[in-house]
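DM from R.C. (forwarded with permission)

"hey, sorry to bug you on a friday — could you get me a structure for this? deadline for the figure draft is monday and I only need the backbone to look sensible"
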Amino acid sequence: MKLIVGLGNPGAKYAGNRHNIGFMALDRIAQDHGFAGWKTKHNGLTVEGRFGADRVVLLKPETFMNNSGQSVQSAMRFHKLEPADVIVLHDEIDLAPGKVKCKTGGGHAGHNGLRSIHAHIGPDYDRVRLGVGHPGHKDAVPGYVLRDFAKAEQAWLDDVLRGISDGAADLARGDTAKFMNAVALRVAPPRSGTGTKKPAGTAANAQAATPKPAQPAPTQPKAEPAPQTDDRSAMQKLLDRFK
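My reply, with the result:
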């Protein structure tokens, strides 16, 4: 079993915030894969489902971001899981909008949700870092992550969420490469070529196939007239000279 946790804050006021992209990802997974019936449990909302033989529990802590670890720890204890069985999806200001990266262990980088999880279960769990961009100055971060995604961001946000849902089964199996490939196919799908390459030697073949202009036939030298036979007698020749 895997426990997949999406981080965010509960309530309609925060639903569209950048800080809630983890909640959004779990909602998309549950919707696309038919995981129905969210229940209030473990200080959060949970739903169970399967990807083939792999059983998963989705968890959205409702303790507010700063106390996310309480909910995660409760769910782990109930299902008898280890930190290695936990995958946390969260917003990441140090990644450009639309970028997704996976990580195991390490620090919390000042993220209050991760800080709380670290305090309750330690750092040795898997994470999916969902880039939302940086406001430019650290003092502006709290207001930035607690604002809704702009309309101009909805297209890439939808691509990322769909990609996460497409690769959710691979993520649960621990196949990070396939998961990242599923995300990439949504975020940056391959483009079909607009032209076709000419096969090698085409130019030469075309040149060979082009008929050359006809060369003029060589001028034949004119035939010399055949010499005529003089049948006159010597006397006649002499008389003809004096005419």
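R.C.: lifesaver. The two ends are 139 Å apart (CA to CA).
me: no worries. The chain has nine helices and seven strands.
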